[in-house]
Amino acid sequence: MSIVRIGIYSILGIIGALVMSPLIIKETAGAKQPIYEYVDNHNSKQGTPTMGGLIFLFSACLIVLVSNRFNSLGSVAAVVTLAYGAIGFTDDFLKIKTKHNLGLKPYQKLVAQTLVAIAVAVYCYLNQNIGSVFKIPFSEYTVDLSYWAIPIYIFILVAMTNSVNLTDGLDGLAASTSSVYFTTFTVILLIMINSVASIGDDSLMTLAAFSAAFAGALIAFVVVNSFPAKIFMGDTGSLAIGAGAACVAMFSGNSFYLPIIGIVYLITALSVIIQVIVFKLVHRRVFLMAPIHHHFERKGIHENKIVSGYFLASVLVGIICIIFYA
Which candidate, 182, 48, 193, places its Cα nearest to that of 129? Predict the structure, then answer.
């Protein structure tokens, strides 16, 4: 029965995104996305509309909010996702207004992200369904981090939103890999729901519904918006995806699975960190361009092949995590 219910949410997410796509694309036709000057191989994309994240943001979140209690885990995840989407929307709006790829100042964006993250971290710690217990990946063991859970939750949210933001550099890259991420977590949540310890756990069911709806909406977004992109998701979409991805991991006690299932986000973020640190120390670049997907582009690999490779890697990791989830 739970599988049918989750399947319905996934289908609703797909339908919602398919319906929203032409409307959002039409309404944002004048919201042209400026391209970074140093990504010169993307000059042909100059003027592509942005804020496309509204397509899957509204499709997934509104479905969950309308059909669940406001204080359910799924609804809280939707609200947090919308909050980060609002930060991204503000950033995108300022970029369009100034006609330059500079929206919110980095410190402004970080402060906003951190303030929301603090509120979410406190919520997680005080919520009896979440608390401070973390599951150890690929084992039946857990660890209680007590008060340390709060800074860890804050770090996860801020790191995840920025990592997905960095991953959103090629047509379909962030959306396709994230659809796999949410699909994987949907299956894991179903495993938890159907386990002896979690039978009848409605809180996990609403979280699984959120994850399924988000996965479906992202799949539809990729299908409608495959290369060449008709609309960019913008920070509106990437920050929202990062928030939603963090929520399904944190709210289910599976935070330590996040860097495994989200291996693409981890590699992307690490490539930028490595590039910056090495350049500051020895004034040499490790990669031709960071994040690493741009390095592959500079090596002459077409972005479609890069996206396909990242997607396949996400699928393989997701399957492994599902098979060995204990």
Answer: 193
Q: In terms of Cα–Cα distance, which of 104, 89, 103 is closest to 235?
A: 89
Q: Residue 172: is its pLDDT beyond 70?
A: yes
CA of residue 122 relative to chain centroid, distance: 21
Distance, CA of 119 to chain centre: 19
How high is the mean pLDDT of the chain? 90
Query: For tokens 């150890």, what's the residue?
Result: 136
Q: Are 228 and 43 in contact (CB under 8 A)?
A: no
Longest dimension (CA), the chain: 59
- Residue 47: pLDDT over 80: no
DSSP state of 70: T
Q: What is the DSSP string of 212-253?
A: HHHHHHHHHHHHHTPSSPSS--HHHHHHHHHHHHHHHHHHTT
Q: Residue 42: pLDDT above 70?
A: no
Higher confidence at residue 247 or residue 95?
Answer: 247
Please tell me whether the peptide bond between 34 and the residue prior to it is cis, using omega within 30 degrees of 0. no
